[in-house]
Amino acid sequence: MTARRSRLAGDAGQAFPIYITAVAALLFLALALFAVGQAGATRNGGQTAADAAALGAAEDFRDQVRKGLLDAIADGASWEELLTGRGFDPPHDPCDQAQWFAGENDADVVSGGCVPGYLPVSFTVTVKTRKAVGKSVIPGTETKHATAKAKAVVEPRCVLDEPSPLPDPTGDGKGDDGGKDDGGKDGGGKGDGGGKDDDGKDDDGKDDDGKDEKPVIDLVCEGEDIAIDPERLDLFPDAKDLFSVHLAD
């Protein structure tokens, strides 16, 4: 009986170190997984900051293009290229907004980390998290920061609606009446109205005050017709109606 007890005590003594080793291994594995989770959270935070920074720069550029387009139409300047988002030099650097949004997400844009692109217009932003992964069982994580990159694209929604000219039924470049109206005057003459249309505006595109008449601009924005009246620019479309902003794949 004494021998049996001694044998059982010996087996228990031999199993105890194995038990301690197994518990220590499981504890280390748990801590290692926790460190991986910390790194993943830091990386995800960095990616969120990069996405927000890229979108912030692109949306700021979109807003500036919209204002430039509105000003050009109001001034009677060339504006067609602005409708595509190209040919525009923004008065303020959109990358300033990239840094602001990165900072709001506890990160910073790295040096030279906001790069504009064209065809289409885009902004590629690289950020670095302000906080490190933190202390863990894996050496070096206490000083390890996450970096992430994102690209946002600005694409036009609208195109100029230019109606096709009506076909000439005679084929000789004149209308059915040979280029004359019912009063025997050609298309360049004046009819009974004295050269004014039904709204009282002259045929030369001027109103009664002698001011140049600005024609309404017809746009097609993703299948929807939008009319821009240069005389009612208070109804000018929002930037989001003229341009879309999205993250690139």
Automatic annotation (TrEMBL):
| Record keywords, A-Z | Membrane, Transmembrane, Transmembrane helix
Start-end of Basic and acidic residues biased regions: 171-199
Cite the residue spans of the region called Disordered.
Answer: 141-223
Q: Which residues cross the membrane?
A: 16-36
Q: What is this protein called?
A: Secreted protein
The record lists the organism as Streptomyces sparsogenes DSM 40356
